[in-house]
Amino acid sequence: MITRRIFLKNSGLALVGMGAVPSFVFRTVLAAPGDDQRKKILITVFQRGGVDGLSTVVPFGEKGYYSSRPTIAIPAPSSKRESALDLNGFFGLHPALKPLHGLYKRQQLAIIHAAGSPHSTRSHFDAQDFMESAAPGAKNTSDGWLNRYLQHNPDPEATSFRSVAMGTTLPRSLKGEAPTIALGNIDSFDLRAGSLQQQARSTYETLYDQETNSLLSGTAQEMFQAIDLLKEANPAQYRPAAGVQYPRGRFSQSLRQVAQLIKADIGLEVAFLDIGGWDHHVNEGGITGQLSNRLREFSQGLAALYQDLGDRMEDVLILTMSEFGRTVRENGNAGTDHGHANVMFALGGSVKGGRIYGQWPGLASEQLYEGRDLALTTDFRDVFSEVLVRHLGCSNTDPIFPDFQVDANRFKGML
Amino acid sequence: MRISASGKTRQTMGTFLLCLLLIIPGSATYSRAGDESKTLTEEEKIVHVLNRLGFGPRPGDIEKVAAMGLEAYIEQQLQPQEIPDPVMEERLSSFKTLKMTPKELAEFYPAPNRLRNKRQKLQAERPDEGARNSPQMEGESVPETTREMQEARRQMRASLQRIRFEFSEAKIMRAVYSERQLQEVMSDFWMNHFNVFLAKGLDRVYTTDFEENVVRPLALGKFEDLLMATAKSPAMLYYLDNWISTAPAEVMEKRVSALRNRLRSQRRKGTGGQQAERALLRLLQRAKGLNENYARELMELHTLGVDGGYSQEDVIQVAKCLTGWTIRAPRQGGSFQFRPVLHEDGNKVVLGHRIRSGGIEEGEQVLRMLANHPSTARFISTKLVRRFVADDPPPDLVDAASLTFEKTGGDLREVLRTLFTHPHFFSPKVYQAKIKKPLELVASALRASGAEMKPARHLVRMLAEMGEALYLCQEPTGYPDVASAWINTNSLLKRLNFALALASDRIPQIRVDLESAWPLFQQLRLPEPSAQQLEQTRSLLGQVGEEENQRGDLRPARFPKQVIASAFMLGSPQFQKR
């Protein structure tokens, strides 16, 4: 139930702070699940550190793959031993991605290979920056692509939970003028002031409302709205569906909380998560080892979310990305160094899955980028723009992609 | 009803309700940032220096600095070695791992594979005994060695935690209590600039040594010395993989076979020195080629900056110069070593300069060249101005700092002196213009509230929740120095909860002394609730029952006026700024 007090307080705040329409806050909360007005939801997952796309989606049909990687290559599909899981007779999934293999076969997972940023940088920092700002080479781009989507496609019914980043920091993708929530843990997102709760809340709210630094005052306003909305919607009441097991670890637990937010119908439209630990310069491993362990958590977490959300996946799209791929040749330390093009995943009920999109550039020496890396055939912005247009129904893409012409002819057709 | 010093009145229904419930800040005075005033008052200048050169004022500090004179205080902070700090030494004495060498840490906290090797060796030497010592427990299907490995892993995690917490607690302790405030600020600055990640493998035994013996002692010295020392520190060699970067695989194979032949002939002759040769052979077998990781970050993050004018080819050439820069017996916590046998010989070209083939001298020459490059002067100066002055570094200050950097050959003390004596350092525009990062917030709150702390794990966890897990920044960039990185809905909530917990003595091992802190809070012009408003809160508190008390939340019995007021002051937006 919504009390009159909270309702009024939020209306007042909205008027004071942002000039937004009063009473917008709880409309979506009130909408019953199953309502036709159900919004499309985008979950983006950033694999920080540069995942090795060639061990993730293995081009086992390429001779060059095996000659470049004497110790870490994933064997071609075979019933006799642990090996790649066949996708189409040329590509295979790393066996640690088994939970995603089923989704691929059910046409819920689309793979885009040889995709990424056309910029040549091999710096993690710059490459992540360029991808998250969707402006390769333009370092003075001050906001992230998802934030620009929110800014330029305003939703009069938006709640403060329209966009959420799971974690203690706000990622570059969501930085910018549109309000967005960073959420460490939905179960403890409140002031801890015991009997002083009410006073602490009011005092801080006033102090921050009067603050001239807009980063502090704006963030505080978003925070208090989020606290109220969480209290009302109480996402913690939604437990994972029967039989669904999220792995331990920050990434999967964040996914579990995203599922709770979705089930709580709290107005979520864009969620961001990241998962690190992909920068395997040393002892990357093949079938087993470091990369395999990371891929396992990655795929088990995503598959758990998929199962947990069940029918709601009709409205949800999960898009994965990483700043760059890794060298085709393994280095002297049974690892790989920073490379160029990479692989992206799109999962969801509306995805035309079970296919590998994009043109494969080949791994022969003369086909490699700068003689060492997988060449790029799909600009990540073609993928981003297809997702915004076809999934979120975005009609105003120009301001989101500076110096880039969005063109439906270059869409992969996965949506 | 007057609700704010800015005189704004709000007439919406919601705000009216708010007012009824509210303790309204009385005579709040707001940040002067953006004011048109021409200069700072003397007291503001002192607060500014205490906030920027250190982790904020303690009760009595403003008076102390006023008595000795601001210039004298700055000069003193620039010479940390001259500042006696006996109390600090005593406070740090309980941290056992702080004084341990990497060798000792490796000995006490061995890695699992070292245990496994030991066991295998034992079994090879005395198979019977090995078997006898590893009886299978009834119904236990896990072979003994696996169980042992699991136990070893568990122990390693525990040791990692122990080292990490002790080291983090010591960092907070120093930020709060050290008289050498500037040195601590600079040590923290360089630990982020030359970031290493304590949880990466052997860095758990090397990170302590890295800050204690490399970074802090050189924090105000010559940049070149600092750069060279980090390049030769096992912590950095390990973190950015240079310790395993070698000449190309083909070259190494030739060297291995030559060595193998020599070993064979020695064995026939029965001459000594074979053990060392065998160890070398094992090393060579593992060494298989170039690793670019350190060379790239060296130029991008440590010296020139990403736009400093280097190419991918320069990265490769620098990496080649640095082959053979490795760690002696790393699993035993050994030190830096240059091994000619792993080095890629031949001339190189770096940034257009020819580097003659010459072993360790190549890398040293490259590091000297990078340390004294104009791009480096600019890059380091920009970062320093960002840390000490403003998120968007004012160009005139960057110019002045770069000029001093170049003129003095990277003398960091001189660069800082240039900054701290520059008139624009005291510009009203930059006063209170920086948002504290979590470590700064926590340390300044403890200092301002006259806190007495024992090593506090809880505080380390709170810092992590605010986004600054000490020594655990995985990316080589280190933690950033700009507000937008630190302020979001999650971290702000954690900051407010920290203020509430601190003021009400709810953080284990920490007790505040608000009585003595009170005058300072007023000097800092933090928004202060009026007497009437406080009375209102206290009467509300009177209605709270024992249950609340039992839960260990805010305890009404311990709620004099200062506690309530302090909680709000320390959580106020004004206190988030420095």
Global geometry of chain A: globular
Based on DSSP secondary structure assignment, what is the total number of beta strands of chain A?
12
Largest sheet of chain A: 9 strands, mixed
| Oligomeric state of the chains in view | heterodimer
Task: Kindly estimate the percentage of residues of chain A that lie in beta strands according to DSSP.
Answer: 5-15%
Range of helix content of chain A: 25-40%
Supply the helix-strand structural class of chain B. mainly alpha
> How would you state the average pLDDT of chain A, rounded?
89
Distance between the termini of chain B: 31 Å
SSE pattern of chain A: HHEHEHEEHEHHEEHHHEHEEEEH
Largest interface: A-B, 70 and 87 residues
How many beta strands in the DSSP annotation of chain B?
A: 6
How many DSSP helices of chain A?
12
How many domains make up the coordinates of chain A? 1
**Largest beta sheet: strand ordering of chain B:** 1-2
Label the CATH architecture of chain A.
Answer: 3-Layer(aba) Sandwich
Q: What does this 3D model show about the protein?
A:
The complex is a heterodimer of chains A (415) and B (578). By secondary structure, chain A is an alpha/beta fold. Chain A has one domain (39-410): 3-Layer(aba) Sandwich (Alkaline Phosphatase, subunit A). Chain A has helices spanning 4-17, 27-30, 53-56, 63-68, 98-105, 124-133, 145-152, 197-209, 214-233, 250-263, 290-309, 380-391, and strands at residues 41-47, 57-58, 85-86, 92-93, 109-116, 163-166, 181-183, 270-275, 316-322, 342-348, 355-357, 378-379. In chain A, strands 1, 5, 6, 7, 8, 9, 10, 11 and 12 form a 9-stranded mixed sheet that branches. Chain A is globular and about 70 Å long. The model of chain A is unreliable at 1-36 (pLDDT under 50). Chain B is an all-alpha fold. In chain B, 56% of the residues lie in helices and 3% in strands. Chain B is built from 28 helices and 6 strands. In chain B, strand 3 and strand 4 form a beta hairpin. Chain B starts with 12 loop residues before the first helix and ends in a 7-residue tail after the last helix. The chains are: A alpha/beta (415), B mainly alpha (578). The interface between A and B is large, with 70 and 87 residues.
